[in-house]
Design a protein that fits this description.
Elements: H1 2-16, E1 22-26, E2 31-32, H2 34-45, E3 52-57, E4 85-94, H3 95-105, H4 114-126, E5 130-132, H5 145-148, E6 153-154, H6 159-170
Parallel strand pairs: 3-5
Antiparallel strand pairs: 1-4, 2-6, 3-4
Helix pairs in contact: 1-3, 1-4, 3-4
Length: about 180
Amino acid sequence: NLTLKSISVLKWMSSFCGNAKYGLKADDDVFVNIPNLISAMSSKRQTMEKFIIGSKQIGAKPIQDKNSKWYTPKEDFGEREYPPYVSGTAYAFTIPAAKALYRVTGRVKAFWLEDIYITGLCARAAGIPRYDHAGFTFQRRKPTGCAFRRHISGHYVTGEQMVKIYNELLQSDLKCD
């Protein structure tokens, strides 16, 4: 269960990553432009100690269709809307946020949708703000360095494509339209 894995990661980071500034959760088919991520995190961190950044979702409702992969019975989640959360395809957070998130997991009932649980329910309980950044997307991007030059993440990228994108981004003479 991804929720339990994420709780374990938060616990591990809280215990063993005291010198780190940031954490990142990304699916294995997501390319992350690390220099752009660090730039975005550093910029936000100048004014805040604890935060989560990614593709923020507001107003999402539990799906009540029993045939849906995302079906959520009312007894599992009784609210009309999910709290604002950050898409689980890729999101980043400060280590102080990771510690605060982990501390509340013991009192926030576990929920099977990891992104809603960690960045929605737990973040709400811990009072951690979630910020939307246009550089994060859970949509497919063209697998080229130019497509990722100004972005932070893109979804549905194969390992081979990640290597290609990375190598293109390393080129100092990369020409883009």
